[in-house]
Amino acid sequence: MTEYEAIIGLETHIQLNTTTKIFCGCKADSWGEPPNTNICPVCCGLPGVLPVLNKTVVEKAVLLSAAMHTEIQRVSYFDRKNYFYPDLPKGYQISQYDQPLALGGYLELPMPEGYTRRVNIAKLHIEEDAGKTKNEYGRRLIDFNRCGVPLIEMVTQPDLRSADEASQYLIRLRQLLRWLGISEADMEKAHLRCDANVSIRPKGADYLNPKTEIKNVNSITAVRDAILTEIERQMREVEAGNKIQTWTLEWDEESGVLRKMRSKETEADYRYFREPDLLPIQLDEAWLSEILSALPELPLERRQRFVEQYSLPEYDADILTGERSLSDYFESAVQSYGSDAKRVSNWLMNDVLRMVNERGISPAELKLTAAYLADIIKLVDSNAINTSTGKSLIEKVEQSGKSPQQIVDEEGLAKVSDQDAIRTVCAEVLAEAPDQVKNYQGGKIGLMGWFVGQVMKKMRGKADPQLAKSILEELLSK
Ligand code: ZN
Ligand code: MN
Hints:
Elements: E1 4-15, H1 55-67, E2 71-72, E3 75-76, E4 79-82, E5 92-95, E6 102-103, E7 106-110, E8 116-128, E9 132-136, E10 139-143, E11 150-156, H2 163-180, E12 192-202, E13 212-217, H3 220-239, E14 247-252, E15 257-263, E16 273-274, E17 281-282, H4 285-292, H5 299-310, H6 314-320, H7 324-337, H8 341-359, H9 370-381, H10 387-400, H11 404-411, H12 419-432, H13 434-441, H14 448-458, H15 465-476
Parallel strand pairs: 13-14
Antiparallel strand pairs: 1-11, 1-12, 2-6, 3-17, 4-5, 4-16, 6-8, 7-8, 8-11, 9-10, 12-13, 14-15
Helix pairs in contact: 2-3, 5-6, 7-8, 7-9, 9-10, 12-14, 12-15, 14-15
Residues 13, 127, 153 line the site of manganese (II) ion.
């Protein structure tokens, strides 16, 4: 049987998180707001209006272009992409065509299997969004709120070789967009939209077969599922001796099937021409270097540095660089703690991260500051409190905003390593449980855990469990 490989290219539309739209003063994000409440003559394309370019859109797009290692064009142009559709009141979309903001570039994908896939970028440009139509009350309704929302369109080369690589691209792109602070990149809210071009060929071949385009996929899982389904369909067609038609397909998430939408328009149908109402975007050195001064260390670079500088396992480094504010939190906790970054990483990944995820907040918003976390680990290191008290302090500091030391003092949480105090309680526990003592002495030594538990309970968790255990052993051997 022939072995096949998939050839996948992705086209993404990224909604930028600017305050206002790209060519007018309307609010850019109107998610969840009533239809047609966030519009004006400019974004609805009434006759006689003129677009004015939002400078922030260019700046955010330049940041992404730099992070994607593209060649940023010093001069780029806007063009009109003409088509008729009810959600496009102007009859054309202002986009960029043959002279876009950026060309080339790449994104590296470290795959869970251990290899790295480099995905090359064909082009990156700025454009405006269209509105949306929906079926309701037995009618087709139009909402123009999204008209003029700023988008970046980014197209990859057909460099992806599996559905997993495609979903990894979206995971890394989403991480990068949030890291740069230029988009919320929430696929469910259409901040990040993706169309996938898919074809297959015998493994090792160097030609390209006709491809299909999958549209309307709105989660990373859905992109993966839709591509897997399409690869399997194409394999069945080819095995049956049929040709692949260049269809546009729509993914129906509920039933898990792809439906044929329409045969694809060619670019000539759009009759692109230069937008006469806007000047070209000119990036002079001064403006460019001002924008690029805000470019942070990128997630994959920081991940690599964490491995080298702090001797962290790649697993830890990957999680700790999942989000920029988490990386910042980690580094500032390591600085306060002073040594052993791996110990900080363990506390952070096990206990703090769980709390962050449960509450759906960013590490920057924690009342448990990085310095407080370092304080808690130091209290455990110095034997002032035991580990379980340390873990409960994480919650308590977060709830109260008080310092760990203050809570330890107020609640009397300091570990009791006083031999006599523990000895008294151990004796009490044994005196109250004559049956268990008999069983233990008769050979059921598994009961030791229960005895220790009783001591900890009586001492409200403050006893040193090791010490309690050795005292119990001593008393029981008598
Ligand atoms: Zn407007
Ligand atoms: Mn587009």
